[in-house]
């Protein structure tokens, strides 16, 4: 059987935030002066991904709820530092208006977008990674998505921590080499280590190396907590005290970190077109927002896959 091209699952917020901070506003503006740096950078990322990965399917996941209440109920500190005084996420003023433009361009091209009420883009990506026919490649700069890597399906993470030009194609061995734990244990590892960017405090005094060592020895977080109750388990007294003091946190943190795999999603058209589905609409968007170069690169990448 011929190798099937991958479906590319795009973490849209991760990429457009990265594009916003990676492309200066002064270098990308519409004729009226409106910044379109996030739009231009995002479209160029997609063009590069399509040209280099040659997918036949693509879905762009959206954040319909960047801080779901069910996660906050478990851990009130979750993303609390990113909460604006008036509510909602702290987002640069000049980024917010660019997101609808991105969505308009994707619609004109014919690339599917999807989000779900009460869930983050990560959860949408997780659900698609286990429901869409493999192979699957998830594109994100979010470390939490290392947990989706699954060599058996296969699901890989194309990690853009250093940008799309320096893409890291991660299988389970890559996750193991990077963190010392398999992808299936990444959520437990992250709960132990903590993640200030998401408001996860972690266990004070437990860093990456100690977290990896604990998981290697005891298998998972449940095994670590069970061993705490066994005086013969070999914990150093100081480490035992740290873990015991964090027991309540460790009971809920993995549920917060774990990506949902059961988000209710509609049937989605995932086929990647070879030409825009609305060429006139795309031309008008390119003219209005000064995106001729980026839209041309994206259209060319679609056409060149054959």
From TrEMBL:
Record flagged with keyword Hydrolase: yes
GO molecular function: 5'-3' exonuclease activity; 5'-flap endonuclease activity; DNA binding
Lineage top rank: taxon: Bacteria
Entry keyword annotation includes Cytoplasm: no
Matches recorded under InterPro entries: 5-3_exonucl_a-hlix_arch_N, 5-3_exonuclease, 5-3_exonuclease_C_sf, DNA_polI_H3TH, FEN, HhH2, PIN-like_dom_sf
Swiss-Prot/TrEMBL GO biological process terms: DNA replication, Okazaki fragment processing
Keywords on record: DNA-binding, Exonuclease, Hydrolase, Nuclease
Signal sequence coordinates: none
Residues covered by the 5'-3' exonuclease domain: 3-274
Protein purpose: 5'-3' exonuclease acting preferentially on double-stranded DNA.
PANTHER family: 5'-3' EXONUCLEASE FAMILY PROTEIN, FLAP ENDONUCLEASE XNI
Name of this protein: 5'-3' exonuclease
Organism: Micromonospora globbae
């Amino acid at each position: 059987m011929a190798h099937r091209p991958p479906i590319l699952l795009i973490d849209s917020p991760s990429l457009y935030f990265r594009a916003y901070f990676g492309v200066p506003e002064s270098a990308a503006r519409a004729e009226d002066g409106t910044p379109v740096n996030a739009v231009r950078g995002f479209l160029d990322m997609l063009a590069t991904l399509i040209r280099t990965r040659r997918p036949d399917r693509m879905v762009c996941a959206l954040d319909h709820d960047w801080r779901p209440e069910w996660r906050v109920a478990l851990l009130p500190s979750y993303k609390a530092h990113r909460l604006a005084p008036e509510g909602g996420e702290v987002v640069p003023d000049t980024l917010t208006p660019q997101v609808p433009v991105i969505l308009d361009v994707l619609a004109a091209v014919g690339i599917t977008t999807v989000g779900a009420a009460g869930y983050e883009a990560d959860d949408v990506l997780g659900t698609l990674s286990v429901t869409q026919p493999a192979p699957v490649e998830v594109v994100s700069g979010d470390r939490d998505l290392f947990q989706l890597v699954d060599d058996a399906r296969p699901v890989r993470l194309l990690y853009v921590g250093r940008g799309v030009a320096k893409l890291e194609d991660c299988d389970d061995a890559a996750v193991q080499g990077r963190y010392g734990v398999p992808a299936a244990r990444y959520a437990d590892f992250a709960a132990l280590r903590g993640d200030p960017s998401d408001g996860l405090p972690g266990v004070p005094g437990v860093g990456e190396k100690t977290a990896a060592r604990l998981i290697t020895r005891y298998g998972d977080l449940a095994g670590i907590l069970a061993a705490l109750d066994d005086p013969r388990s070999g914990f150093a007294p100081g480490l035992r005290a740290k873990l015991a003091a964090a027991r309540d946190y460790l009971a809920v943190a993995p549920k917060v970190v774990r990506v949902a795999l059961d988000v209710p999603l509609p049937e989605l058209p995932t086929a990647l077109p070879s030409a825009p589905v609305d060429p006139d609409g795309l031309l008008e968007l390119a003219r209005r927002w000064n995106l001729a170069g980026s839209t041309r690169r994206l259209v060319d990448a679609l056409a060149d896959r054959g």
